[in-house]
Amino acid sequence: MQSERRSFLTRLSALPFLGWLSASSGMAQVEPKKRLKIMMKSAWGSDDPTRASFAFIHGLALAEAGHEVQIFLTGEATYLMRKSTVDAMYPVGWPPLRETLDKLVIKRVPIFS
């Protein structure tokens, strides 16, 4: 039944006045994804390394996906910009914060504190 319907729709879409049918039946070309502008905000500090790293980890993933990302740090999170603090941050289940920050620098993701 479904194959009969599909072949019928394919034949209809070949007609000039029903060309729009092919777009609505899933045969249209895929449009490029829109590039988003995203600001990540975090206030988590070194007392919880895993939560403190989330803004950086998620920001990196979004930047690698092609989005424009900025990271904004408030409160205790501002201490994460100290080299000694970053080097001591090891989130559970994620790479050390130093590695993530190095990748963010390569991607030129701005970090405001």
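The record above closes out task 2.4. Task 2.5 opens with a second protein, given below.
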Amino acid sequence: MILATGNRQSRSSRELLRTPRAFTLIELILVMTLLMIVLAVSAPSLQNFFKGRNLDSEARRIYSLTVYAQSRAVSESIPMLVWFDTKQRTYGLRAASSYLEIDPKSVEFKLDRDLQIEVRNPQLVPGSLATPFVDREIGTLPSIRFSPDGSIVETSPETILVTQTQKDAIALAINTNRLRYEILPGNGYDYRR
């Protein structure tokens, strides 16, 4: 005698279990509508968040460029320049042209359209004895000059200010022992002087 084992469901109920269910068009439209409402409500706050990140990342890139220039000056025993062109809204790094005519490792960056850069050097005010550094490639553009020993030359700017609006600013300034630059938040630094 043989006994039947297993599931005693009918054939039609087994087929129903195997067929995948899909979303209806109405369910999909409802979910898309909810997503659009959430995005419309959160977009203004996200826009301000990304603007702040843009300013912060640009200041950190300039800071990283100064650290890289200083280490490159020491490792290659060549003066390095981190230059700033405020009119063209560009900045970059290159070896001093008096040491290297063509610098294959030179880099150049362009500021985001919402950002401005300002270079302040109180030592180079009109009538002072200090004269700006002149390079054959960059001319008299303001530049941070690192000596082959890694020190910052006296005619280098004291402060580089990256601004996005009148309220949002980040400053890079020489630290108190004049060995490197550091990032200062714009609201903690009087950038209107």
